[in-house]
Amino acid sequence: MAEKSGIVFIGNKPPMSYVLAIITGLSASNVKEITLKARGRAITTAVDAAEITRSRFLKDLKISKITIGTEEMPPREGENRARMVSTMEITLTKE
């Protein structure tokens, strides 16, 4: 859960951990926008964290942009070809 200039990287922690990171990131400084970045299975956690934050904690938070894509990951040990992994960025803006 690294926070650098309004970016929260989503991993395999519970969604509430990222909700806390979003709230902290928006309230600690005068940041009006925060971006959640997730890959693969963590995409569902990113969506959950964004929706929990928006519906329960910060009612004035809006989803301003959603970007989806695919990244090529190097092959794992024992595999001979690269694999494609889905990516998603959700940008939340405080009004």
List strands and helices in order, with pairings.
Elements: E1 7-9, H1 15-28, E2 33-39, H2 42-57, E3 61-73, E4 83-94
Parallel strand pairs: 1-2
Antiparallel strand pairs: 2-4, 3-4
Helix pairs in contact: 1-2
Task: Write structural notes for this entry.
This protein has 95 residues and is α+β, with helices and mostly antiparallel strands. The chain has a single domain, classed as Alba-like domain (Translation Initiation Factor IF3). Helices cover 32% and strands 37% of the residues. The chain is built from 2 helices and 4 strands; from the N terminus they run βαβαββ. The chain has a 4-stranded mixed β-sheet with strand order 1-2-4-3, covered by helices on one side. Helix 1 crosses helix 2. The model has no long low-confidence stretch (mean pLDDT 92).
Counted by DSSP, the helix tally is 2
The side-by-side strand order for the widest beta sheet comes to: 1-2-4-3
Largest sheet: 4 strands, mixed
Mean pLDDT: 92
